[in-house]
């Protein structure tokens, strides 16, 4: 191998630094192109030479044509020769006996060239002397030079299956910066041995190709949605919020709806929207029966300065089992607990909620709700807005606008909008509000301990941030493991460009 | 939230001003409604541009163009609230409710609109308002149903009764054939529009019916009116019947209709009352009651919530923009008296009045402040902290976290794992839309295997884990079920990989300060071990084990989970063409 490389280097040197075409160098002409290429590449990598490919069309004689050249005549000439020699007494059968299969081929060609004709079963020459064997001459030229000037004839001969085309590859080779007649050997890597015995000092190292990726480590990964969840948790922790025990998916109509002043005929309580349970089918009543009674009254007759919804409130509806439709069911239980020792507090949760919705690219039957609750004396709407700016500011969302909205358990209710540059419009990023006095005073919380609540889904900001268009590719079993394994760190405050 | 489609040109005419889409969008935003779409661009040959406006679910007074224009005009200070009057003051027409209705829908209300001038768009708006009320406030006619009639085709007084279906005979609206109650049920069975309401009365032995003094049927609530009393563009006098199972909502619906359409009476906002005679349930009265409700609101409360320092008069000015007429109380300190018009049934408490003051002031004009940072100490939920430790340790061990749903099919949770439901554990859903959501999982393994199935083409081995909640029944609890945080991992490859999941379990236990006990019988330290489990059908025979954990030296150990080679039938059930092993433990033991 390196012998070949050495002789290439020598030849370049001998031919004044350039081999115009290796095909014209007898000692390289027979070397297979792949071998030549890999050796040239090796020299090129050492910056000793540069080279370029030369591709040439070459016509080769087929074995049949080779036999014509060997015989010194094409079959048609042989046939005419026989006919002339026999003085026109030759029959087709005689010819067959004499020349074998070639006779037939030659006879056809000779007829076509109008050198022969037939008289009964006899063959008659239409020429008086042997014609010139032009085809043979052409074949000889091709054998020597690989081609013919007359392209039409080439096509003819190809049709007669006398020649075939092959592409042959040669190379132009030139000296490069590190040209030498000897080849140095390069080390590919520093080994422990080299470090130990100091041989690295004398070794020359193969240059690195830095334009390639390394070998990735084998690793596990956290789920992208859980990474975004962690970002939210850290924002909450940094603002003094304690995580609520949201690990309770099964709720009662009482906690999920009634305590939140959602009337029993509210559309959210429809079978179309809420998952009800058939097993277990009926809940127990809460321990705090005074609270239970307050809730009944505030719905049915009104209490705490509210005229209520004025409908017959049904225990059975309140005791229906549901999968919670929002984590606010947990917030309600936590605020009820707070009423035993009322004081300002900050609570949050990020957990699953369930909706009996038709599944599509943006809706799943379960998803994660991010929820914050802030209780304090005499909190104002200005506080709510100021706080939301801080909260969303921590994830890089600034310049909020607030729109009045309706929610059965908050009054006022404010939808939070932010301008989305990519979409070029204001988009709703969350909901907020002050919990209604009907809800809080039923628990026994003092009138001036006001409570702010706000929420958003975890999936939506994640989808917007990471350009996921189908929620099923984010949450649930249809997620791609490759997506999980290659997903970057979640940094909500990072501007994605 | 209902979306109302209104004629753009008509609305701007009512508002006395033309707006660009952006300007109108801005006005909506400030008021608290939402411009969904302006169809101007899509209108073809002569179609009239529409504005599609989303209305908050409790603003029943804005379900038609008349109401939207009225509310916005008052918000913009361009219009006074309408002053409704009753004429004649003493009702001439009566509607008697018979006790028989008690069995099916016992409440009814009624009113008459005299000398109405309809044109096509007003007429359509009238019909659409009824549709919108039916779907929203009336809960698809279950709570309340509306019937409207050409009064001149009927002869008062009216009765509202409940009769056996066979005794009710009439030609339904837009039909030609007379049918009785049974035939009508059959006739509308397949009807796209009305079929969905039949269930409300079908199984009752009696159907509710509105009759005039000649026993002519006016309507069969909540299904359909009679063709006889059909309203047309030429109708002058409209008789409205409202029936329902909810008394409050019956009143609200009537009030909204008369409030919206009395404007088209010869004397605008004049309504003819109807005497309701309902002795059996003491609900006799004159309908409608148009007297505004008197409410009080504390000035200090409104100021404190909104962050203002306004006088009673200033607050009254704000409230005027929201259709509320208010004035400082002459007798009470710190109180404003507020009159709530019949259109604003959404106002239940002074907090609703406070909201209106805030909207009128403008949410985006409020001075931004910060809530007092009361000294609060933040803390994670303990089980989340434990789960986070397990999640980090698992991912550091080369496993990828997945997040399947907690709802799954009954088969996935039981049959596919070769287990049988003994009805003691799994919570079952009553009304799932698909089999995918039949039960709440009692193990994390099905979700992991489903995720593996979807990733069959991923390079092997596939290593996934989840730390998530399962739900288990407990009849002792108020909520009859509780969550339990589990941790589980699955290895899937050309071989079962039992030793790998066992090694991962070891890594997890090491992380949780729990050594492997080789001789748990004699060694009573904190630690864990596994014991063959011949009973667990999810695992291949002889390749499954229980996991035991002793938390404190000398104490009783607890079985906390299982580990094993997944049975080939389990792999086939989840359509995974490889071998695999799983491990699952209750993470709450580390609390």
From TrEMBL, chain A:
SUPFAM superfamilies: Class II aaRS and biotin synthetases
EC number from the UniProt entry: 6.1.1.20
Record flagged with keyword Transport: no
InterPro entries: aa-tRNA-synth_II, aa-tRNA-synth_II/BPL/LPL, Phe-tRNA-synth_IIc_asu, Phenylalanyl-tRNA_Synthase, PheRS_DBD3
GO-annotated cellular components: cytosol; phenylalanine-tRNA ligase complex
Pfam family, one: PheRS_DBD3
Record-linked PANTHER family: PHENYLALANINE--TRNA LIGASE ALPHA SUBUNIT, PHENYLALANYL-TRNA SYNTHETASE
Protein name in UniProt: phenylalanine--tRNA ligase
Species of the source: Suhomyces tanzawaensis NRRL Y-17324
UniProtKB/TrEMBL annotation, chain B:
First-level EC class: ligase
Required co-factors: Mg(2+)
Major localization class: cytoplasm
Residues in B5 domain copies: 290-368
Statement: the UniProt record of this protein carries the keyword Plastid: no
Alphabetical UniProt keywords: Aminoacyl-tRNA synthetase, ATP-binding, Cytoplasm, Ligase, Magnesium, Metal-binding, Nucleotide-binding, Protein biosynthesis
One Pfam family this sequence matches: PhetRS_B1
Listed EC numbers: 6.1.1.20
UniProt-recorded Gene Ontology molecular function terms: ATP binding; magnesium ion binding; phenylalanine-tRNA ligase activity; sequence-specific mRNA binding
Location of this chain's protein in the cell: Cytoplasm
GO BP, one annotated term: phenylalanyl-tRNA aminoacylation
Metal-binding keyword on record: yes
GO cellular component: phenylalanine-tRNA ligase complex
Catalytic activity: tRNA(Phe) + L-phenylalanine + ATP = L-phenylalanyl-tRNA(Phe) + AMP + diphosphate + H(+)
Family named by the database record: Belongs to the phenylalanyl-tRNA synthetase beta subunit family. Type 2 subfamily.
Self-association state and partner proteins as the record states: Tetramer of two alpha and two beta subunits.
NCBIfam families, alphabetized: pheT_arch
Designated name of the protein: Phenylalanine--tRNA ligase beta subunit
